[in-house]
Design brief:
It is built from five helices and seven strands, in the order H-E-E-H-E-E-H-E-E-E-H-H. With 166 residues, it is α+β, with helices and mostly antiparallel strands. The chain has a three-stranded antiparallel beta sheet with strand order 5-6-7. Strands 1-2 form a two-stranded antiparallel ribbon. Strands 3-4 form a two-stranded antiparallel ribbon.
């Protein structure tokens, strides 16, 4: 019931045991929703970011009703590497803004360890790098369409949503 209450901001679940001699009650309510859930998951870990990263976006239909809604929340911690585990390296979708790729989410080789998050730009054959360039152009086109639809703000406003984005 705890997870259901975390995932449904504003929902209150109260469980009561009214058996004689065993009376007890437990209440689950998390006004912060998934942000509180991420805090709960990281309560015994050292976090790399001081606050969880949180995004919420919804679209309305022609009647003004919410048609779909997405909430995303995450916070990196040093738990896995700190417990003696190997650094986690995986091609992961990450925000990239460097000399070659500007303001885009791309799958890059990403290492998460006790030092934080490191992204390594892929290197390959000329054919592989040409394919990557085509993929980047396609992703830029999709990003710009999503911005035009109003799902995402203009790139120059991204820092307002997340001060870690420059």
């Amino acid at each position: 019931f705890r997870e259901i209450a975390f995932l449904n901001k504003g929902l209150v679940i109260t469980l009561e045991d009214k058996r004689e001699g065993q009376e007890k009650s437990e209440r689950f309510e998390f006004k912060g929703g998934i942000v509180e859930f991420v805090d709960y998951l990281n309560k015994n870990r050292e976090t790399i970011l001081s606050e969880p990263v949180y995004f919420n976006k919804f679209n309305r239909n022609s009647k003004g009703d919410i048609e779909n809604e997405v909430e995303v929340c995450f916070q990196f911690n040093d738990g896995y590497a700190d417990m003696g585990g190997k650094p986690f390296t995986w091609p992961a979708g990450c925000y990239v803004n460097n000399d070659h790729f500007q303001h885009i989410m791309m799958a890059m080789e990403t290492t998460i360890d006790a030092n934080g998050v490191t992204v390594r730009e892929p290197k390959g054959t000329p054919a592989e790098e040409a394919a990557l360039e085509e993929s980047y152009k396609h992703l830029c086109h999709l990003r710009d369409e999503v911005i035009e639809m109003g799902v995402l703000p203009a790139i120059d406003k991204w820092h307002d949503l997340n001060p870690n984005i420059r």
